[in-house]
Amino acid sequence: MIGECVAVRLGGGKIKMVTDLTMFVTGLVPDGHSAEVPPEAFVTVGDKAMKKLVSYCLIVLTAGCVPVISLHPLFTKDTIVFEEKLLGTWVEDSEKPQVTWEFARLEESAAVRLPAEMRDQIQKCYRVNVIDDKGQKGSFAACPVKLQDRLFLDVLPDKFPGGEQDPEKMKLAYNAFFFMPVHSFVRVNPIGDRLKIRLTDDDGFKKLLEAEPKAVRYDMIDERPVLTASTAELQTFVAKYAADERLFPNELTLIRKTK
Q1: What is the pTM of this model?
Q2: pLDDT given at position 166
Q3: Which end of the chain has the least Cβ crowding within 10 Å, N or C?
Q4: Are the beta carbons of 122 and 110 closer than 8 angstroms?
């Protein structure tokens, strides 16, 4: 199964596809099968913002589908609520785990790689590591958001695909100026012995937009919707459609791994 990632350029207020990506990484889908997906979204946004482009596009592998991505975060300081129960290691099958999800407190050293609005809330954020049985990994920063008594995660990558964090150690250091973090959202059901999360998918989102084209602001990029709404607009939209399977169609059930 081949997943795809959005590559965009922002300039003069316009958004458009700029290139096909040729670099691939192996990841996992919820059923444990492997998929190949491109790991970056290339974005240019002007000289001032270019200095802040230190990360890359989020890949959330959902049965070969592509997550809905947003140019703006879902969280604000007043909506961030840390959930202690989420900490720990979660697997789909405790006897033969094919995918392992690790939730830990986000390390303080990650602050320099985060968007400015997230840095002073780092103590309330998570480090999410996803590891498959072949040792392939993904590592993300995640900010918990409470909207109308529902918990969501605003997930974004804060590390480059090669794992480098120091530009001086990168083989292609100047490429770092063209990376920008984008956001994707996960709905988290009440946490007990099992953790049920629901993931977005752009095919389901397209169906929602076809039925309700004014539900939220977005732009179409290579026939794929990308959210351009402000954080306030996103919060209203996500809260309203939280139970709508067109926005969160993919459910993943995990159990807590015990030592």
Answers
A1: 0.73
A2: 62
A3: C
A4: yes
